[in-house]
Amino acid sequence: MNETVGTVIIGGAQAGLSTGYHLKKRGLPFVILDANERVGDSWRKRWDSLRLFTPGHYDGLAGMPFPGRGWRAPTKDEFAEYLEAYAARFELPVLTGVRAQRLSRESDRFVVETTDGRLEADQVVVATGAFQTPKVPPFARELHPGIVQLHSVDYRNPSQLREGGVLVVGVGNSGADISMEVVQSHPTWLAGKESGHVPVRIDTRRSAVGFRVFRFVGHHVLCWGNPIGRKVLPKMKHMAAPLVRVKPKDLVRAGVQRVGRVSGVRDGLPLLDDERVLDVANVIWCTGFRQDLSWIDLPVFDDEGEPKHRRGVVADEPGLYFMGLEFQYSLSSDVITGVRRDAEYVAKHIAARQPMDRAGARVEAIPS
Hints:
The protein folds into 2 domains: 2-130 and 293-352, 3-Layer(bba) Sandwich (FAD/NAD(P)-binding domain); 135-198 and 242-285, FAD/NAD(P)-binding domain, CATH 3.50.50. 24% of the residues lie in helices and 21% in strands. The protein has helices at residues 14-25, 41-44, 76-89, 173-182, 208-221, 227-236, 248-254, 336-352; strands at residues 2-10, 30-34, 94-96, 100-106, 109-114, 117-126, 131-134, 148-151, 166-169, 188-191, 257-259, 262-266, 269-272, 282-285, 289-291, 320-322. Strand 1, helix 1 and strand 2 form a beta-alpha-beta unit. Helix 1 runs parallel beside helix 8. The radius of gyration is 22 Å and the shape is globular.
């Protein structure tokens, strides 16, 4: 592959597909690169029992409602199938199994070097999300080699674990969900301290009003276009998300044993900050992800390594855009309910860069 296209969208999940939908609606040429073998695999490859937090009514992308009715939250496989069907319905040009390895600029065009060749484009939309690389503490390598270690990104189900105790590190939503599952077959310890929890049961019809209020606030109030959002969002960047589906009392009732922070390793076993050593056979690291945009070889980052943009538009590098970033425009920007608005905004900016013919209609800057 060695081609020239109008716009390259890097990332084929909900952010990339949403952007592609709005570009196609405007008749603009583009291609979407998806490193996975199938559209939706970024969801299929997560742990088997994962379910979305949002009910299906709110999980549809522009132009195609999520199938089904009621207040039920879809499974990750159901959402993966929806994404694949979405790409097929709108005939979005997705190249699967193609990973972007470097993004740079040569003269007046961007160059995307991939595992399948080179692409040149007038515009590039980075829709991979910033946090894709698993974080594991350096002392993890000191654990005894007989201990099974998995990051949450590699965990699928308890069949991957050895017989014996399980230490789950990290009391975020992934840590809580996985603990509730593995405790059914293994003695389980959950290390860390949660940062609060949603006080209602999200999977009941009674939570509908609260969910609508929360969505409205996260979508329309806590955004950069609102004075309240401009004051609150910078503080929220440094706060951990609360537990959503699982509550602390659920963990206790299920038999999950709560312990403090894991501070290191002693004699090949996990060492807690109270000097206790846990003799476990498995460790699941639910310690999150770190940002890795090092493959972007362009001067578009601030001193903290964050992309410099306004609502996904990079002013210092005309034609470059981001999608699906945390707090890109609002609290909802990096979740399914928020990408629709951000994708339309980015697509409008791309359309505005296209030349016009004498009749005032947009024409393709580069043939696809």
